[in-house]
Amino acid sequence: xxxxxTSTVEDEIESHLREKFDLVLGQETTDKEWAKACxxxxxxxxxxxxxxxxxxxxxxxxxxxxxSHVMKILPGTSDYMSMxxxxxxxxxxxxxxxxxxxSFVRGFRERKHIVxxxxxxxxxxxxxxxxxxxxxKKKTQHFYSDIINRSRAKVLEDLIHQNGTPEEQASFHSxxxxxxxxxxxxxxxxxxxxxxxxxxxxxxxxxxxxxxxxLLPRCCCTNHVPIDPHAIHLYTCNEFKHLMLMRHDAIQNDxxxxxxxxxISVIDSGLGHLLEEDGCKGDLLFKGQGRNGEDRMIDIxxxxxxxPSYLHASAHTAQYVLxxxxxxxxxxxxxxxxxxxxxxxxxxxxxxGQASDTFLQFLKKLxxxxxxxxxxxxxxxxxxxxxxxxxTLQKYNGxxxxxxxxxxxxxxxxxxxxxxxxVHDIITNERHVHNVA
Length: 437
Known about the structure:
The chain is mainly α.
């Protein structure tokens, strides 16, 4: 749609979009939180986009793709069409026959300037120029949108790296890839793809590094540690190890189901006898899925990049926790399993969403097998399982938050053990700030 129409309402559209997002979130967003939410799902955000950016990319792309054809069909347009890429001085000096014509040219120049500025921010002006010089260019809107979105992501990344807290920097690294944001593409149609309102809100707040308004002030652990507003302690305290195991087992069950879908024999019990020390074992054994047709053992680990023990490194190094967990598991198991003819692979995740490249390669292998067995296109199957695993991870992050709060409230004597409704209200009412008497 022409900017002469949309430019008057694009701010209203964004305000309306932000208002609805705040309702989903349960509280108002800050400008920085909203800027994150507007980024693509594969670059830290929620994929909402900004109307101004979408309109700019669409209009500039339409003009670029049709300009030569219009001048060929209507030669009389050549003079003013040459002003589309003229210098500012030439544009200002040109005598337009009609105000509407001048408004059209000005609108294009303003929208294309947004694309050009984004390319300059990314040091990609030669790339943009080469694309524009191609007379047969296609998917121009997608190309322009990608430049604008990556530029916005870079500006926000620079801002957070320069001025953000270590916790914000670490979580920002930890949700940076398409797997981390896959749960946002979910269509809730069955138990595996459905998240409750509160689980989804927890996932959004963890992703955007938004404070929780409803956290109880102190943990029920031995030291009664104060609970930070971003709930970091709840995901790192030994008091809730059983809840972390619940999340681990949910991921493990998904992977087992994927293996069985591909007619692969998957074993999840009785694995302690494979090594000399009984009880020291991996999580799942996939028959024939390792190197050279060997069986492959995987061991699942889920870490938090914002954990105090990792924070100094993970705030500055992307995938620090993933690589550390991989190294630890390989040190523990790799040589020992190879000695008995079993291939070993660590499957590591960060709770904010990232998965290791090693795991993703194995996931693609399992999906390809399942796709072939079931006659389903690989890309459809992979997209489904990426979303399902991402959803499971975030769903159980929400369950951990909820159940940890319940335990704290009960153990610290804030509510009676049988007053389930009150516990639920304390935790799920996002606008309620709990005041402990």
